[in-house]
């Protein structure tokens, strides 16, 4: 398809109506002369180069088409695998066992939160995590360990960042 650029904009097919510098309009693209097209502010004709829209993007830059490679899609978060990995992790199990002994309600919140996180809803888990952080139950080493597991399972950056301890609450002691 033949396309034209109006005042440097991305090329499109000619409109049905063009306005000439003298104020007259023309309304049949099949009869427009090349001079009328140029006088109406169009440049061209341009033909889109072939490209693969699944992997490439066609961009109009400074009067020319450019093809750029699309970035790979972001990985899909693997919440169920994350919850399974936590369930099989020795440090996590020691932490959960200590919570069951010392803070049973928080223990339940963490468990429920993990179940919901496996379904993609991390709010309860992050609320329980924040509670544990506020009670200084999370060590820096343990927080970094959980973050590493979360990253390994392609969890969202916002979730991984929420696992980070605030700088004023760094507990270097082991988990309870």
Provide an overview of this structure.
By secondary structure, this protein is α+β, with helices and mostly antiparallel strands. It has 2 domains: 3-69, no CATH class; 79-169, no CATH class. The protein has 7 helices and 6 strands; from the N terminus they run βββαβββαααααα. The protein has helices at 34-39, 79-88, 90-102, 104-117, 123-134, 140-152, 157-162, and strands at 3-6, 18-19, 25-26, 42-46, 56-61, 64-69. Strands 1-4 form a two-stranded antiparallel ribbon. A two-stranded antiparallel sheet has the order 2-3. Helix 3 crosses helix 4 (104-117) and helix 4 packs antiparallel against helix 5.
SSE order and pairing:
Blueprint: E1 3-6, E2 18-19, E3 25-26, H1 34-39, E4 42-46, E5 56-61, E6 64-69, H2 79-88, H3 90-102, H4 104-117, H5 123-134, H6 140-152, H7 157-162
Antiparallel strand pairs: 1-4, 2-3, 5-6
Helix pairs in contact: 3-4, 4-5
Determine the fraction of residues in helical runs and give it as a percent range. 40-55%
Order of helices and strands: EEEHEEEHHHHHH
The figure for the number of domains is 2
Structural class: alpha+beta
Report the average pLDDT across residues: 89
Shape: rod-shaped
Biggest beta-sheet profile? 2 strands, antiparallel
> Distance between the terminal alpha carbons, to the nearest Å?
70 Å
Give the amount of beta strand, in percent.
5-15%
Radius of gyration: 30 Å
Query: DSSP helix count?
Result: 7
Low confidence ranges: none
Arrangement of strands in the largest sheet: 1-4
Compute the number of strand runs. 6
């Amino acid at each position: 398809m033949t396309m034209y650029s109006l005042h440097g904009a991305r090329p499109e097919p000619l409109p049905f109506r063009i306005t000439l510098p003298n104020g007259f309009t023309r309304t049949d693209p099949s009869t427009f002369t090349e001079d009328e097209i140029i006088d109406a502010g169009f440049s061209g004709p341009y033909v889109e180069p072939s490209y693969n829209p699944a992997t490439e993007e066609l961009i109009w830059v400074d009067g020319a088409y450019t093809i750029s490679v699309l970035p790979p899609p972001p990985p899909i978060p693997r919440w169920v695998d994350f919850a399974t990995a936590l369930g099989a992790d020795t440090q996590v199990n020691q932490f959960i066992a200590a919570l069951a002994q010392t803070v049973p309600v928080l223990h339940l919140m963490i468990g429920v939160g993990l179940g919901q996180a496996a379904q993609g809803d991390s709010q309860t888990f992050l609320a329980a995590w924040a509670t544990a952080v506020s009670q200084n139950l999370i060590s820096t080493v343990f927080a970094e360990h959980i973050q590493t597991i979360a990253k390994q399972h392609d969890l969202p950056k916002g979730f991984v960042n929420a696992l980070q301890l605030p700088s004023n609450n760094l507990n270097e002691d082991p988990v309870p």
